[in-house]
Design a protein that fits this description.
Layout lengths: L1 H34 L6 E4 L3 E2 L4 E9 L5 H4 L2 E11 L2 E5 L6 H10 L1 E6 L9 H7 L4 E4 L1 H6 L7 E3 L5 E2 L5 E5 L7 E5 L4 E4 L3 E3 L10 H14 L7 E3 L11 H16 L5 E4 L8 E2 L2 H12 L4 H15 L6 H4 L20
Parallel strand pairs: 5-6, 6-7, 7-8, 12-15
Antiparallel strand pairs: 1-3, 2-3, 3-4, 4-5, 9-10, 10-11, 11-12, 13-14, 15-16
Helix pairs in contact: 1-9, 7-8
Length: about 350
């Protein structure tokens, strides 16, 4: 009897671990490819949140756009970074362009540039292309292959792994497949990371929505990252990297060391339950870097195996992901693609 209990318990543990590995590896591609559609709905919006004299955050509460009742109930916050310089505006990661937001932006100044900071935050880009045809639109190289129809409207972010796309800002491109560009605004001491960092729900600002709180807990669970104050690192992105991840890990750590050497006092992210931005200390950033420096564990390697079999082995079903692994969509910067100069 005792031996049977041990065997059944062992089987249950193995099954639970296998499920955890599968969910961790497949949640993002499944959500992006099957649960998100172009019909994303805006549930609520906040007026522009002023962070400093030159920085504003546009914050919206949105759903997945999927018509399924359960899928549509999955909600999240979406944030756009707005930087102002001498009456000119640069928008990083366009959010839903509501009438109220458009009025606020027009009152702030002239929109000179709109930047998509990675290969997944383009859902609302066409709204800005239609509304501000005179602006310059910049997207990562991979987006040129993922959505070739954007080539007639957009140019590629420069091939340099770091630089500036607008006065007073600096970008660092992380060496991962989705080409995340982390933005630093010097005047505000603000770091903006769309998908690589996330901010856990502050105890004093729960926003009162059960589904949001549950989703935050779920994301933290599958990430397996350790909290560094209010900031977390999305550990599970390790599973989505190109082959040769040891070298990529070193490059990733080197990039984050450069970033954390900046005078960062505030952080904002594309998603997460908080208002505008959060303040951070040097100690928190140091702890965060230690999380990033962690070498891949067995869960990461197992998840990478699942990801390669299920996603990279299906070029049609997960086209939005697999196309970003094509040689041309990586960092080779094809000469036929228009690129931002200077």
């Amino acid at each position: 009897m005792f031996e049977a209990i041990i065997i059944m318990t062992s089987i249950a543990v193995i099954v639970a671990v296998a499920i955890a590995i599968f969910v961790r590896a497949m949640w993002d591609p499944f959500y992006c490819c099957f649960m998100t559609t172009a019909d994303i709905g805006v549930l609520s919006s906040s007026p522009l949140i002023k962070i400093s004299s030159s920085v504003y955050i546009s914050e919206h509460f949105i759903n997945s756009g999927n018509s399924g009742k359960w899928a549509r109930s999955i909600t999240k916050f979406s944030r756009m970074l707005v930087v102002v310089n001498n009456g000119e505006l640069c928008l990083y990661n366009p959010c839903p362009l509501t009438e109220e937001l458009q009025k606020e932006l027009d009152e702030l100044g002239n929109i000179q540039r709109v930047v998509v900071t990675n290969c997944f935050h383009y859902a609302f880009l066409t709204q800005y292309i239609d509304a501000y045809p005179e602006a310059t639109f910049l997207i990562p190289q991979g987006m040129m292959w993922k959505r070739p129809e954007l080539q007639q409207h957009c140019i590629a972010i420069p091939a340099a792994t770091e630089g500036s796309l607008f006065a007073g800002t600096h970008y660092f491109r992380l060496p991962d497949f989705y080409q995340e560009h982390v933005i630093f605004v010097e005047e505000a001491g603000l770091l903006y990371s769309s998908d690589t960092l996330y901010i856990r729900e502050p105890e004093t600002r729960p926003h009162g929505r059960l589904e949001v709180r549950l989703m935050q807990k779920f994301i933290r669970l599958i990430s397996f990252s350790q909290p560094c104050g209010t900031i977390h690192y999305f550990d599970y992105i390790r599973q989505f990297r190109y082959p040769g991840s040891d070298d990529l890990h070193k490059k990733n750590v080197e990039c984050w060391r450069k970033i954390f050497a900046l005078p960062i006092t505030r952080v904002t992210t594309g998603h997460g339950v908080f208002c505008g931005c959060v303040s951070v200390t040097k100690t928190e950033l140091k702890n965060l870097l230690q999380c990033i420096e962690r070498k891949d564990g067995w869960m990461d390697r197992a998840g990478r195996m699942v990801f390669r079999m299920c996603v990279r082995g299906s070029s049609i079903r997960y086209r939005d992901w697999t196309c970003l692994y094509d040689k041309e969509a990586q960092f080779g910067y094809h000469p036929s693609v228009k690129e931002e100069k200077g």
